[in-house]
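Researcher: Going back to the complex we discussed earlier. I've cleaned up the inputs and rechecked each line, so this should be the final set. Can you rerun the prediction on the complete assembly and write out the structure?
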Amino acid sequence: MGLFTKDIKTLNDLFVHTLRDIYYAEQQIMKNLPDMIEKASDRALKKGFETHLAETKNQIMRLERVFKMHGVEAKGVNCPAIDGILEEASDVAGDVDDKTVLDAALIAAAQAVEHYEITRYGSLIAWAKRLGRNDCAAVLQETLDEEKATDKKLNDMAVSGVNQRAA
Amino acid sequence: MGLFTKDIKTLNDLFVHTLRDIYYAEQQIMKNLPDMIEKASDRALKKGFETHLAETKNQIMRLERVFKMHGVEAKGVNCPAIDGILEEASDVAGDVDDKTVLDAALIAAAQAVEHYEITRYGSLIAWAKRLGRNDCAAVLQETLDEEKATDKKLNDMAVSGVNQRAA
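Model: Rerun complete. Updated structure for the full complex:
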């Protein structure tokens, strides 16, 4: 969207803008996950990140399907939110001097990413339904369900073992 | 935390760092809410943001109580995540050229903020319990419950009326 222009005139414009926001965000997440996989020590956590990398690639393809269904170009827009969340994740990880504490920090960072995705997909699904695009909403819902499951898995890992080893 | 130093050596350090992260974040949210109140057209939404401003001030005081209980200085640290989320909220709001669509965008922006807080308080509570600070966890839980309730209220407002008017 352009500076000093007001390009979002309808709910459909807002929907397309936010699709492009999360499309950019998913790509940044995909680029950052290999670094998180490398930094994780806990085997289950490492494996969890690997699974999420595969899921993220699939979620990007799902977004491309939604762009196509909705008849708009698949492209990203600048997303300062995910840039900030990932910058903070990298800053904090770089400050941690113990591998079990680093695992706890990585889980928290990954959960911040998940929650960003959960909120964006939630809005997108509500708007898609309101716009009469139940077909798009159904595809986006598949991703939302995956993100919620990933957040829950991360939570279980934190509570069941990673935090305990870090303490 | 310093550049090129690894200042987080224990789970307690990570807990204190993240307390300071959310302390800074709450202050930025407090500074940004008046602008969101001004931009909102829907009366229930405007009132919802006003209520949340009062809650945020209380949440900041609660954090100061936790700092004191835990015997560490109440201060903020740089939090690129909330800076990015708020920058994106402001960018998108500035791009919207219709007041009902703006309300839908404001709700989505506020929900992104809530989800950031939900994830951070969730991690803080898990770590506080693991560190044997159930007293701190209980205070932080009060805020987490408020944030979840706010997110749900925003969701209900979006689904029940704001998105419909925007469509």
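Model: Worth noting: Chain A has one domain: 11-166.
Researcher: Good, that matches what I expected from the previous run.
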